[in-house]
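Ticket #329: bound-state structure for D-aspartic acid.
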Amino acid sequence: KMKKVVVFTTGGTIAMKYDEKQGGLVPAVSGEDLAKAVPGLDKLAEIEVREFSNVASCNMSPERMFKLSQTIEVALTDPSVAGAVVTHGTDTLEETSYFLDLLHASEKPVCVVGAMRGASDTSPDGPANIYQAVQVAASCEAKDKGVLVVLNNLIHAAAQVRKTHSANCDTFGSPWWGPIGYCDQDRVVFRRAPLGRKVFNPEALTATVDLIPAETGLGTEYLDVAIARKVNGIVIEGFGRGNIPPAMIPGIDRARKAGIAVVIATRAFAGRPYETYAYPGSVGDSKAHGAIRGSEASGAQNRLKLMVILSQYPNLANEPKELEALMDS
Ligand code: DAS
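RESOLUTION: The complex was predicted; output attached.
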């Protein structure tokens, strides 16, 4: 019997066409049309298309990601459903994929897919990418590997993938790690599996978290704005090992006094932030002022993770050791 795959469409260039009046690509293609544009899709699996939204991915928000996650997980509880595919704009695809991965306990595959060329462009990449995403979602090999990103024949783990080029079709990469598999004509080939996934299950997404990039010469300006906004957490994207301008440190003090969790991430593509150094602005210094280490994921991903964790365990904002154990994993 043919496997069933549910395709959730959210929008993105994959579902866009050129509009002469507006002079650019705009959302134009329905979920049904998307599936119809893929020759041979019906031979891979029984497809059910559900339109979740049709927006450019700059409109994605953590709240929408949470709703999408809940919708997918409910669909996957149906024993007749083998896996899910999500079509998504590539701009924030790595955020939504990571968010879905954080909440994905089922062993069934969820594949997130996009396209760099619009549906009306010459040689659109969307149809081939959708074909491959369904191929992966319907495969036994993809089971128990969390949320996967499938584009340009390659399969990436959600926690490792980044959009690396603003326009090229070969844009998704997993810096330092590489893809975990690829799609071939007859089957899906995996060579690695992501390790160390931790799954959370907050009832609602209640926590707010701001992401603040360290900038050379920066003081407490943005930290003070976040404190005034009464966020529950702040992720600072530091340099290299997580070092930040020393003039930001008094802002960490003020945030911690207000009960706001402060997490240090790195703007480097890979590697963990760590208290290697003891000079002003180092992670050692930030930690002495109440901040904690995040993980080797991007600042944006650390932000989403902190939102999820503080939504599930609000009291951890004032338990730095326990919070760090969850964040740096
Ligand atoms: N249109 C952009 C987006 O929605 C880019 C894309 O989808 O490739 O993210």
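RESOLUTION NOTES: DSSP finds ten helices and 16 strands in the chain.
TICKET STATUS: resolved
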